[in-house]
Amino acid sequence: MNSAPLVYTDRVARRFAAAALVWGALGMAAGLFVAVQLLAPNAQLSPELSFARLRPLHIHLAVFAFAANVVFAGVYFASQRLLATSLPWPRLGAAHFWGWQAIVALGAIALVLGRGGGAGDALLAWPIELALALVWLSFAANFFAMVRRRGRARLYVSVWFFIAGIVGVAGVKLAGLLAVPVGAMDSYPVFGGASSAVVDAWRERGLDSFLLTAPLLGLMYFVVPQAAARPLFSHRLAILHFWSFVLVAGWAAPERLLNAPVPDWLKTLGIAVALLVWIPAAAAVASGFGTMRGAGSRLLGDPVLQFWAAALVCLGLAALEAVLLGFGGLSLVTGYTDWMHGRSHLGSLGFTGFSAAALLYWLVPRACGTGLHSPAAARAHLYLAVVGLTLYVGATWLAGASQGAMLASQDAAGGLRYELSETIEALRLPYLVRVTGGGLYVLGFVILIWNLARTLWCGASGERDTEIDPADAGDTREAGLRELLLSPPVLAAAVVVALFALAERADPLGALASAFLAACVVTAVFLAAARAPGEAGFHARLEGHAPALTVLVAVAALGGGIVQTAAVSAAPPEPPEAQAPYTPLELAGRDVYRGEGCASCHTQNVRPTLAEVARYGSPTLAVDPDERPALWGTRRVGPDLARVGARHDLAALHAHVADAQPTTGAPMPSYRHLEDRAADLAALPRKLRALAALGAPYDRDDVQAAEEAALREGEEIAAELESARGASVDTDSEMVALLAYLRRLGRSQATEDGREPLPAGEDGKDGEDGEGARAGQVPGSADGDQPPDGYDGGDLGDEP
Amino acid sequence: MTVPDRRDGNTTKLGGIPVVDRPLGAGFGWLLGAGLAAALVFWLWYGIATPPGSVERYFAERAAALDDGAMVSEEMLRELAGDRFAVQSGEEAYERSCESCHGPAGEGGDVGPNLRSTEWITESSPVEIYTTIVEGRNEDGMPPWGSLGPATCMNITAYLLTIREERDEGEASR
Questions:
Q1: Is residue B5 part of a domain?
Q2: A126, A198, A424, A574: which could form a disulfide with A187 (CB 3.0–4.6 Å)?
Q3: How high is the ipTM of this complex?
Q4: Inter-chain CB proximity A155 and B19 less than 8 Å
C-alpha cells in the first residue's frame, strides 16, 4: 500500500494545452482559407498556397497539431490521477513536447513545399513519419511507466481507451512506414494497387478512431463524472462500449472502399461492419448522458458538460449516417462529393472539436489551480460553435447530395442531364453557407483561445502536492497470468484463431467471416464474464492485468487491418490485361501528381454505374498491383482522371493544367509554374530500382537508361506542345513529366503503340448547345481502350 | 461530492472515480442481438447477391436497361441522324473505334463487313444497329462497344444512318 503524498506534474499538460491553442488557430485558418478558395480559385497568393497544398496542411494541423496536443494534455493530466502516480520522467515529457512541436512544424513546411507522403491524407514524407513515430513511442514509454507504477490495482475505463489510442496510433504510424525510401523525402509504399488502398483506408480510419476519438472518449469517462458530480452510469456499459469500439475501429476500414475497385467480398465486409457502427456510438451516448442524468442544474450551467453533450450528439449522428451510407447504394451517389467532407467534419469539428473544447475548459483551470476566466464567454463559444457546425455540415451535405444527384441524373436515352461545370455552378450557395458556418465556428474558437489564454496567464503555475485517499489506493498486485489464460474469453479467442487458421486455407471470405464473427463472439463472452465492479469476475481481473489488457487491445485494434490486407494481397483483383510499366518520365510525372496533391480534387476511379460510365468511360475494374500507392483519391472537385488521356490530347491537357480557370472558370488552380521547375530526373534510376525490387518489371537496362529515356520522351512532348500550342516548355520540366503521366491515363498500356494523340475538340465543350452538345460528349474513348474482360456480349443477357 | 442515489445500486471506486454496477437490461440485450443479426443477414445476403458498387451489378443493370429499350428509341436515333453535331462526333468516334475494321467510310475491310449497302444494315432498325454496337456480336468477332458509353454509341448509330444507302421512307420505318 502506497499512501505517500503524490506530486502531479501538470507542467507538461499545460504546455500541450497552450500549444494546442496556437496550432488550432493555424489549422482552422488554413481550413477557412481552403474553403474560400473553392469559391474563388484565384485566392492563391503563391503556388505554395494553392488548394491542393493547403488542404493536406489543414488536415495535418487539425489532426497532429491540434487534436494530438489536446490528447497529450488530457492524457498526461488524467493518467497521473487515475493511476495515482506521478509522471515518471518529466524530462522525457518535455522532450516529447518539444519534439512533437518541431516535427509537426517540419511536416507543415514539407507539405507546403509539396513534399508530403502523397498517399491518402495525413501521411508525411518518410523521415518525418519516422521521427513522429519515435516521439510517439516516448509518449507511450511515459504512459506505460505510469501504468506500471500505478497506485491502484485496477485500471479504470479511461485508461483502457488511452491504451487503445496509444497502441492504435502506433499501428497506424507503423503501417505508414512500410515504404521503400528512394530519396531524402520520397518513398514508395510496400503495398501496391488494391492492397495499398486497404492499408490507406485502414490508416485513415485508424487515425479517426484511435487519435481523434478513443483518447477523448477516455477523457469523457474521466471528466464527466467529476464535472457532473455523479458516479459513472454503468461499468458494464463501459465494457461493452470499449470492446465494441475497438473491434469496429479495427475492422471497419473497408466501409471506406465501397466505391473503390476492390474485391466484392471486401465491400460486403465493409457493409456488414458499417451496420455495427451504431453499437459503440449508442453505448457512448448512453454512458455519457446516463452519467449526466440527474446533474440537473449543473448541466444547464456548466459549459464543460454542455460541450460534452454536444459532442455526444455529433458522435451519435455520425454513427447513424455511417450506418445509412453503409448500405452502399447511397454512397454511390454521395461518394466523392462534398457529402463525405461534411461527414468528416461532423466527426472532427463535431465530436473531436467539441470534446476538445470541453476538456480544455475543464483541464486548463485545474492545471493552473484557478477558475475559468469567463464561463459566460465559454457559453458564447458553445452557441457559436453549434450554429456554425450546423450550417457547415448542413450546407456540405446538401451540396454533396445535390451534386451527386445531378451528376447521376440521366435522361430516358441514357444521356447525361448536367455537365460537371453546371453542377459546380450550383455549389456556390452551399459553399457560401459553408464558409459562413466555418467562420462562426472559428470565431467561437478564437473566444476559447482568449478565454484560456487569460486563464493560463492568471493561473499560479506551481505544482501542488495531492494527498491520495488511502482507501482508494488498494492492492497493486497484478492478477495472475495463469488465471487469465484459462478464462473463457481467452479460450474463446484461441478457438477463434485456430478456426481462422483453418478457414484461411479455404478462401478469403471464409477466413474473414470466421475471424470477424469470432471477434463478435469474444465480445459477447467478455460481456457475459463481466461482473459487478467489486467482484472478481474475468473482466475485473483483466482490468488488474495491464500487459494482458494491452495485448488483447492490440489484437482487436490491429487484427482487422492485418487480416484484410493479407487477404487482399494474397488474391488481388487482376487488371484485364497485363500493363507495361510506366516509362521513366511517366513515373516522374506521377510523383509530381502525388506531390502537388492533385488527388485532393481528382479521383482516378470510374465507378460502375450507368451515369458514371456515360460520363467517364468504361468502369475501372482493377488497379494494377504495381501502382504504388494507388491514386484513386477520395474527393472530386474536378472530373475523374482515370481516362483523361483518352479524352484529351497533349495540347488540351496542357491547356487544362496550365490555365484551367481563365478558360472555364472552374475551381482548378493554374499550374503553369510547373513549367519553370525542373523535374527530379536524376532520381529516376533509384526509383526504378526500388520499384523493380518491389516487383515491377523493370530490368537493369531500364534502370541505367532511365534518365536518357525520360529526356528523350520529354523532347518529343515538348516538340509536340511547341507545334500544337506554340508553347515552349523545357524538356526536363515538371510540366512535361506531368503531361506524360496524364496522357497515359486511360489508354491501354498493353502495347507500346497506341500512343498517338487523339484529335482535339472531342470533349463536348466546344460551345455547341442543346441536344447535340450533350450527345456530342464522348466519354472515355480511345483506340487502346479495349473493352475489358467480362465485358463480352454474354454478360448482357440473352437478346430478346 | 457525489450525490447519492438509491437507484444507483452498488457503487465502487475505480481510479478514484465512483462507478455504478448497473446491468444493461434485457432491452439493450435484444437491441444488440438484433443489430448483430442484421449485420450478419446483410453480409450473407450480399455475399450471394453481390454488394452495391459491384461491377457484376453494373453489368446486370446495363443489360436490363438495354433490354427495356428504356434508353433509346427509334425516333430519338432518327432525330439524332439529323443533328449535325451528333453525326460529326459520331463520325469522329467511328474513325477512332470502327474504321480499322469497317473501313474509312463504312465500305468494309478485312475484318468487318460493309456498313453502307449490305442487307443487314439497310434492313435493320436504328435500335437494332445501336444494340449491335453496344453489345457486339460475339459469334462474328464484333466486340461490344458499350464501354464507349450510350451517348457515343448513339452518335455512331446516327452517323451510320447517314451513310447507309438510300431507301424508301416506308421501308426505313418498317
A1: no
A2: A126
A3: 0.71
A4: no
